[in-house]
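Standup notes, structure subgroup. Blocker cleared on the zinc ion input:
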Amino acid sequence: MSSKAYVVPIDPKNPAGNAAPGVNPTSLWSSLPPAQKPAKVGTSHLFYGTPAFDVTALVSLGEGFDSKTGDVRREIVRKAVGSGIKSVKGLGDGVSEAVIDASTDPHAAAVAAHLALYNFSLKTSPPSAFDVRGTTGVPKKVEISTNTKTADWDRGVVYANAQNLARTLMELPANMMTPTAFCERAQTEFSGIPNVEIIVRDEAWAAEKGMRTFLSVTQGTDQPAKFLEIHYKGAPSKDAQPLAFVGKGITFDSGGISLKASEDMKLMRGDMGGAATVVSSLLAIAQLQLPINIVAVTPLCENLPGPKATKPGDVIYAMNGKSVEVDNTDAEGRLVLADALYYVSTEFKPHTVIDVATLTGAIEVALGEIYTGVFTTSDTLWDRLSVAGESEYDRFWRMPLDEDYGPQIYSSNADLCNTGGKPAGSCTAALFLKAFVNGIEAKDGQEPSVRWAHLDIAGTMEDVCHEQKYDLNNDVVRNTPFICTRPTPYQEKGMTGRPVRALVEFVRRLSNQG
Ligand code: BES
Ligand code: MN
Ligand code: ZN
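Run returned:
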């Protein structure tokens, strides 16, 4: 039998909790012998048969919670709520209904509850909510609610559901999440939301625009490429300069002719993570009707080897006229982004451009799963992103965007080469993209006309409980335990949907500023 659960975070020093029908957290907590009231964040105590619930979980907020503030306090609440849910999730046939005491921090509690109860599966029995056919009967859904509902709780639900959508788009295998399917899903998700316009462009349109580096990536596949463009106009003036999002949308990255090793290649179903996260972020922003104008573009295609595929050494003229040598067809992300960045920065004159991409394995080497790497010319943009990331514990680390890396990518027989060798692979990739952002160069001592940040999410796209895979000689070693930093109590392993919450928070703060 599936159960109804009540999850109550408790400050051990002041175990008030929020009383619910038939549940008095204070007396339940005080009924515990002192030895069973450990102060560690996330320790849960379960009480069965409380009148209105099958189970009540009291979960500790840890020692010293009362003195914690700001970002630290929020993360404790997320962890506690996540742990509480974990402790009741597996009971019987699972939870069918979870009621959360969100009084300590409604936004953080809503986020943690909705992320913790997400569980991607395409098993057919019981029917899966993720079945794209939609024909397998009524899937089991967990009802999540709170008895301390506020506007902050509602906003947290929007944030988490958007992140969960990004997780789903990334988890879905490449045969189900083609460029066409991605666009259809976006149209469904946005339908009925005011101030939104969605345009799905095809290859003929891209060819007419001269998006030759984008199209060079899709040549090896029969699956039609798409260029998705979403406009959201929430600002008081529809003509106000927009913010632009660009998302890498490789629905499967085999590497192309420079074929990847088969090990872990299936992760590359998530190589549209940039597209998934910017579209999902924009969905939340539009649902919240934040007062801002945004245009989001995502070049979507597969990167496969085939008789027409681009070959190493081929030279392509990008939309901005620059010649690009494709030294390695597996460095395809920067090729599709080059034309998308140039298009968005020339066509819509945005004040700020943010691209998100699962761009380089090297960023995972540098930052692991903990931080998304940010490359930007703008200190103020960095500050704003950093504050938003800390606030949602969806954190960023600034990386160098430095012309001194230039020789690594400027020295082939074309203007640019799409690889820059092993050293600083994420930094040379970022520098490559910069060449396509119109307005990024300061002219005649003036400020650049656009602020730009590139977010490399290849390290943060997935939470894995790692095994150590490589020894110092890069030979494969198996089954060596590795200390696991993520997943967190509120987010299980799998595609993370990061940095959706950080982006939505960034935009919320930016739009409140006017
Ligand atoms: N999509 C990959 C990057 C990636 C790697 C994402 C691992 C997530 C996990 C990207 O297209 C790629 O293949 N990059 C190459 C670039 C290299 C050929 C210059 C890489 O990182 O090896
Ligand atoms: Mn690649
Ligand atoms: Zn890729």
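Discussed briefly. Residues 388 and 506 are 5 Å apart (CA to CA).
Next: hand off to the docking folks.
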